[in-house]
Amino acid sequence: MVKISLRVSMIIIGDELLNAKINDLNLQILAKEIAPLGFSFKKCTVLGDKFDQVTDEIQKQSKENDILIITGGLGPTKDDLTKSIIANALGVSLVENELAREYAIKQYANFGREWSKENSHYHMMPEGSLPLYNPAGMAPGIHAKIDKCEVFCTPGVPRECQAMVRETIVPMLKDRAQSGHELFICRTHSIPEETIFFKLCPNLWETLEEFGKVSSLPIISGVDITVDLRPEHQNDESRQRLKVILEETPLKDNIWTYGPRNIEEVIVHEASAKGLTIGFAESCTGGLASSTITDVSGSSAVFLGSVVSYANSIKESIIHVKEETLKENGAVSIETASEMANGARKSLGADIVISYTGIAGPGGATPGKPVGTVCIGVATKNGVSASRYEFRGDRKRLKNKFCQQGLIDLLNEIRSS
Amino acid sequence: MVKISLRVSMIIIGDELLNAKINDLNLQILAKEIAPLGFSFKKCTVLGDKFDQVTDEIQKQSKENDILIITGGLGPTKDDLTKSIIANALGVSLVENELAREYAIKQYANFGREWSKENSHYHMMPEGSLPLYNPAGMAPGIHAKIDKCEVFCTPGVPRECQAMVRETIVPMLKDRAQSGHELFICRTHSIPEETIFFKLCPNLWETLEEFGKVSSLPIISGVDITVDLRPEHQNDESRQRLKVILEETPLKDNIWTYGPRNIEEVIVHEASAKGLTIGFAESCTGGLASSTITDVSGSSAVFLGSVVSYANSIKESIIHVKEETLKENGAVSIETASEMANGARKSLGADIVISYTGIAGPGGATPGKPVGTVCIGVATKNGVSASRYEFRGDRKRLKNKFCQQGLIDLLNEIRSS
């Protein structure tokens, strides 16, 4: 079988992405949506709301690609230019479109409002193009063909973009799809990238390369090692061999999962399978660990609740940390972390409680306890233990590092329970 | 004075950005760093780790720009190709560079390790280029000139990229800078974009356009209206006139701030000024509101703590919601929200407590209470009130929507206190 690889690229339109107002989410969202079809983007270009520049880019890219997905600039306001740009690129005018009008009426009704021409120009489309239904908002998308390239335009709001790609565009693309990539992912914690590849496992990269293209990606708490498996290795035997190779290296104890799942998903899955309940006592992380766990659908089966004891008064009143412990050791100490975990475990009635107390900065450092210090406690029915760690970074990064370290400690505890 | 507008673009390199593994953060980070210089990006292109494609793009873009910032592909592993690509584009080889060697030795020492040639090739640079010091990691950046374009390469890890741009590249760019943009930002909540511009304020856009380029951006809880002020309007009088114009429209009560600050920053600032303390009782938001507030440096002056009462047992035990209330009205009800806020206010000892109880889905809907329903309570020394809202979206979006609505309710309460 000869595989024909379709060239798929993306153009993102919006001044707000180039002037730091917001961060683009659509590239990753769409890459995820099209991956099961075997597509991945060749290129993604971000441009401002500039008529000429966007027109040029669309004309150039439609020559270099088979499929072009364009997001943004479809809304009702005057900075939304995509429709006119597509009409211009096609050399046609905007005309009233019966299907677009129907979509507009239907969508306004869904949101309990009545559509009229004066409200929005959603019934106007480039002549000869097809409106695309928007399952999550008002503005319809556009499907058109510029030369040999199929062009799909979606709104820029990530939720609308995702819904339109998933429900409307992906079904249209299914028959243009070829068979997919398959990624083998090994997720590790606590060892820097170059320690892995230059010190601990100097031959690992070459060994993995026999299975496909290797890449290494530092993430907040460790490194993801990914192999884009060649077709002959897309099978259980090769995946098993890869695991054996990795687990014969010094990385063994630092591998926490294979596959794309996040640590919070693995925690909910494994705690749930063992019938364990969990909770947190959070100081410096301010609720982030609890929020991260509750991002997982189904977390209510394992997560009972938490106490965010930011002020010392809360540490004393709700989770019963002793006043002397705080006075003698300070809030950021092994002793306080232990009492927080123990006290919260009793208050919450959970099997395992993780506590966090640390200094996220920029203020709050004391002699011997720099910004980035965190003490993490683990309480179970068998007792309590606590560890001290030091990380570097700004406030948000430190909150994240602290949170991830506690989740690793939690996962280890679940696995040994 | 004649202003020369420098053309600045960005190229981001990394397979992981095109195959959905991670979301790019560097575009927004760098746009923020260069904005004070008066620079904004003309274009940003995301490409995979492909030697030929990246080389082509760099050659093309170096003809169309005065400054080109390239992130990614500088790490120690074999998928890191940027150095070779730059050497290729310059038509030179990689050679040992004395300054790069010094940086490598220094940085390894900072992280408590010893550098040697066998560890990494960080001492190799394209001939004739300048290594850039990396304040936050190991890999040095590159400064080179391709034709008339100045090229800066930074690592892809957002923290390292940001540190290098801020501490090393921005100072180098200062003398190439021209005077800056100034954005007037009006942040509103709870009204959709098209209701604002087509129904409530049909002439607003044109009126604002007299001051500069207008843009409208839907955010999670409302719409940001931004005016990129023309030089003659970059003064207090024009900013004051814009405020008067906006506050004479029906938007008046939905404007919660002017300027770039987030709602959590505004809350911490205003509560702090009034000496008020705050806390949360979070069920469906799972700690997100608390974590959002504690992202703000200085939040410890106002935020005491929270109870994340995910399970009903915690609602009863720690914040004293009555069993009958839960039985008769359900956990998602005005009554439960009120008792949660009141009970948590007593447990936490805070001036204002916001409670959240709702259904983030995908499961958990009951007749009359669809996914997206949330009840939010506000307790103060004067009593308690609660409201019910309905939103749409997936689990993460709903958690966010719930969180933002409660923060708006909190801000209103702080302002009326």
From TrEMBL, chains A, B:
Query: Which intervals hold domain MoaB/Mog?
Result: 9-176
Instruction: Write down a Pfam family by its short name.
Output: CinA
Chain coiled-coil ranges: none
InterPro entries per UniProt: CinA, CinA-like_C, CinA_C, Competence-induced_CinA, MoaB/Mog-like_dom_sf, MoaB/Mog_dom
Gene3D superfamilies associated with the record: CinA-like, MoaB/Mog-like domain
Family membership:
Belongs to the CinA family.
Q: Which HAMAP family match?
A: CinA_B (MF_00226_B)
NCBIfam families linked: cinA_nterm, PncC_domain
- In Swiss-Prot or TrEMBL terms, this protein is called CinA-like protein
Species per Swiss-Prot/TrEMBL record: Halobacteriovorax vibrionivorans
